[in-house]
Specification:
alpha/beta; globular; single chain; binds magnesium ion; 35 strands; binds phosphoenolpyruvate; eight-stranded antiparallel sheet; 28 helices; disordered N terminus
């Protein structure tokens, strides 16, 4: 159904707006240019569509000059002249941003008519732009007009889905009252109010969006409770997900400093009926109950790519677990049989090979864990059934993992949950398995998907995966990446509100899930998907060639390895060598360290699998956050800043010496490179070199072996010249460099969206590294996660990096993408990125350049 032009009101009737400041008149904003006014949610950039910058309206301009929407003062004019912020007389700040990704134009095509600090009148010219030039070089011309200080102001009416002429009324903005909550009420913290939904068509998209918009004007946390369901009032999709129809009861709960006002405002807004016309039908597109203005959800990329498909909620088998046991002997035998049955199923699946083998192998190891067996036996002896005992044992383990700081260990919770489920199913606790009638091109929606559930799906019907929870390094994410299925994690509970059958556009690279996109957007996606598919096939066909830029600069594309199987796969995928062998796999999950001979055997096998290609072995990188039973680490407040990386090796030089001897004995010197993790000072490198020399002496070895350092701390990056004077090479670990550079825990889920190695601060640390190493003429590679991101490769090359060590699945794409670039292009991108203000800006630039 076509949208009707409309002026929507976020609040109506002066009487009920008790959070509004009645002394201040509403601010009227005039359209700054001719064009078409659209809801912000339709802007193809989550930063605006998700209202991260604030609420507002977007204009698709037909005019080429932006005028002041009201009287005020220019408080910000971006250097690139594409964005200007005006402070209106009452204090509202209005940000106007011409086009998307236009910052990258560096001012070309723009003329400013005002300067910062200048007072302007409504209708004065602010910025002119060359429409033709922008149409060619910008991702989109759509121009968001945003209320930037939404914590103080809210939009009460707005013109949307309609043409606008310059000077015509476009928005009305009202100042919110400052908090008047009494200290006692604030201390009590929570206010509740029961409301009967008066809306003719229930709480559908538009009122949900308006309620959410109003909620965003308050600092208070506001939730809507309907039976068992709970929704954050700031999330329109979550509100819609409550499924509230007319006359349904709902409880509003607000807590926080301005909770009382927030509650009063939202309840009044809802009770007002929100001008919902009885006769007006609900807009529907694609699927019943999926409104067109639902916008996009933000998630975190777990596997790259773009897919267009149909929403399908993953259906999970219900389990019924009897609590009481039927006697020790019977229950013990039942559990044993169930575990054996699961093991044989896993063993058979493992023998098929593929990316899941390693994961299934880890599951098999869990099933053999004596501690699990002991706890389950105790529980059975205490009168529990086999199923209840197994469930409780695994739940206790999951609770332990939950407390761990290492994200990769925490993500293993999903593996344990998976094993719990599989054994319970083998014990007969499953009710009939629901049929997964996947539509073609299904976009699977779920809270989380267990690896065994992934394995049971038909990958030819799964076009994408979006999980409400999960982490980017979960096994489900790894499996999705290995199957080339684009995937997003951490999309939030709003996923639940998406109806099966809704058309979805999953853009993993942009971290966005677009709900019921319009036909032109779908068509554009189909073309991009077809182009990407044929490009992938072509890239795979030439993956075995050495990598060069278009103008002939050699860039080595290596693989990161964690096992012998990885080495075999990497060679098949076109790896030119190994830029990082994580040796921890030999040291963790055991009661004593591996002997020198065991290490000789393993490193030797990997070197052979690489058939003469360079093997870069990282010395042991464990610490308080990745503990080993045989290393009694002292208790630490901050394990990430404590005994970790090379510090452990220097604390226990006996372990390092054994490892170095094993490496020297097993890998030919010409093929071998050794590197130390988490180096922060030259002294550490010298200490490692002393031990390496001792090992060579002990083995009567005359050849030298390259010794490098990993640049993972800001200290190493800014002293790269000093380190490079004595190191044979530097390799940047962007995961830790981002963690320490941005002072952000790499495992903190709530920071995941900001944890981005393309942050200009991290890029500047990389630039400092290549510059410092360049002075000593030492090569710099990147082996952290950023090296596996094809989007980032041109920047890294432009910054002077000469090798990338990536996950095997990205090697073909990396080689093909790099072959399309010249060194000069890479340098230009790198210098533009270094001057940007956020990772989001850098990503936007790269996406636009990548699409050319
Ligand atoms: C890094 O920190 O970027 C890195 C490669 O090491 P790890 O991820 O193993 O800590
Ligand atoms: Mg690291």
């Amino acid at each position: 159904m076509a949208q009707t032009p409309q002026i929507t009101e976020s609040m109506s009737g002066a009487g009920q707006v008790d959070q509004g400041d009645s002394r201040a008149p509403d601010l009227v904003l005039l359209a700054p240019m001719d064009g078409w006014a659209s809801p912000l949610a339709e802007v193809p950039d989550p930063v605006f569509a998700e209202k991260m910058m604030g609420d507002g309206v977007a204009i698709d301009p037909t005019g080429a000059t932006m005028h002041a929407p009201c009287d005020g003062e220019i408080i910000l004019l971006h250097d690139a002249l594409h964005a200007v912020t005006l402070r209106a007389v009452g204090g509202a700040e209005i940000l106007m941003h011409v086009g998307l990704d236009t910052v990258a134009l560096g001012g070309q095509g723009f003329t400013a008519h005002v300067a910062k600090g200048q007072k302007v009148k409504a209708g004065d010219r602010l910025i002119s732009f060359d429409l033709d030039q922008l149409a060619q070089s910008a991702r989109s011309l759509i121009t968001p007009i945003i209320i930037a200080n939404g914590e103080k102001f809210s939009i009460v009416t707005r013109r949307e889905n309609a043409p606008v002429a310059r000077g015509q009324e476009m928005m009305r903005v009202r100042r919110l009252a400052s908090s008047q909550a009494s200290p006692a009420a604030a201390a009590a913290g929570e206010f509740r109010r029961d409301v009967i939904v008066p809306l003719a068509h229930g709480l559908h998209a538009r009122p949900a969006a308006r309620l959410a918009g109003a909620a965003k004007g308050f600092g208070a946390e506001i939730v809507f409770l309907a039976g068992e369901k709970r929704a954050n009032a700031r999330s329109p999709i979550a509100l819609m997900g409550l499924g509230l129809s007319k006359d349904a009861p709902v409880t509003l709960i607000a807590s926080g400093s301005d909770a009382e006002q927030a509650l009063a405002a939202l309840a009044a807004l809802l009770e007002s009926g929100m001008d919902e016309d009885e006769a007006e039908p609900v807009a529907i597109v694609g699927a019943p109950a999926m409104p067109i203005d639902a916008g996009a959800l933000a998630g975190i990329r777990a596997a790259p790519g773009l897919s267009l498909g149909t929403a399908f909620h993953f259906k999970r088998t219900d389990l019924a677990v009897p609590e009481a046991g039927r006697g020790d002997a019977l229950e013990t035998a039942a559990l044993r049989h169930a575990i054996v049955a699961v093991k044989s199923k896993l063993g058979a699946a493992m023998r098929k090979g593929g990316a899941q083998s390693a994961i299934l192998g880890a599951h098999l190891a869990f099933l053999d864990d004596p501690e699990l067996a002991r706890q389950a036996a105790e529980s059975i002896a205490g009168g529990k059934s086999a199923a209840a005992a197994w469930r409780d044992t695994i739940d206790a383990q999951i609770a332990v993992l939950k407390e761990l700081k290492d994200p990769r260990l925490r993500e293993r919770m999903a593996d344990l949950a998976d094993l719990k489920r599989q054994v319970l199913v083998a014990l007969g606790c499953a009710t009939a398995a629901p049929a997964q009638d996947l539509p073609p091109d299904a976009i699977l929606l779920a809270d989380d998907i267990l690896p065994s559930e992934m394995a049971g799906l038909d990958p030819t019907r799964v076009a994408g995966i979006a999980l409400a929870g999960g982490g980017p390094t979960s096994h489900a994410a790894i499996l999705a990446a290995s199957l080339n299925i684009p995937a997003l994690v951490a999309c939030g509970e709003a996923l639940q509100a998406i109806a099966d059958g809704t058309v979805l556009l999953l853009d993993a690279d942009r971290g966005a899930l677009m709900i019921a996109p319009r036909e032109p957007v779908r068509e554009d996606a189909r073309i991009r998907i077809a182009t990407a598919t044929s490009a992938r096939a072509a890239a795979r066909a030439s993956a075995q060639s050495l990598c060069h830029t278009r103008d002939g600069r050699r860039i080595a594309i290596d693989a990161n390895l964690g096992s012998l199987e990885d080495a075999v796969k990497a060679v098949a995928a076109g790896a030119e060598g190994c830029g990082l062998l994580r040796t921890e796999f030999l040291f963790l999950d055991r009661q004593s360290p591996p002997s020198e001979d065991e290490q000789v055997h393993t490193y030797g096998a990997i070197a052979q699998a690489l058939a003469g290609r360079t093997l870069t072995i990282r010395t042991l990188d464990i610490g308080g956050d990745k503990p080993a039973a045989y290393l009694p680490f002292p208790a630490e407040e901050n394990p990430a800043l404590g005994l970790r990386g090379v510090r452990v090796s220097l604390w226990r030089p006996d372990l390092l010496k054994t490892q170095l001897r094993a490496i020297l004995r097993s890998v030919p010197a010409a093929q071998c490179r050794i590197m130390a993790p988490m180096v922060a000072s030259l002294e550490e490198l010298r200490a490692v070199r002393r031990l390496l020399d001792e090992a060579r002496d002990e083995l009567d070895m005359r050849e030298t072996v390259a010794l490098g350092v990993m640049v993972e701390t800001p200290a190493a990056a800014v002293t790269a010249d000093i380190l490079a004077a004595e190191a044979d090479f530097l390799s940047i670990g962007t995961n830790d460099l981002t963690q320490y550079g941005l002072a952000m825990d790499r495992g903190n889920a709530s920071l995941a969206a900001q944890f981005d190695a393309l942050h200009p601060a991290v890029l500047r640390l990389i630039a400092a590294t290549t510059e410092g190493a360049g002075r000593a003429e030492r090569p710099v590679g990147v082996c952290g996660g950023l090296a596996s991101d094809p989007l980032a490769a041109p920047i890294l090359i432009g910054l002077g990096v000469t090798s990338l060590s990536a996950t095997a699945s990205q090697i073909a794409t990396l080689k093909a993408d790099i072959a399309k670039r010249t060194l000069d292009e890479c340098r230009a991108l790198a210098s533009a990125a270094l001057a940007m203000t956020s990772a989001a800006e850098v990503r936007a630039l790269l996406l636009r350049k990548g699409e050319r």
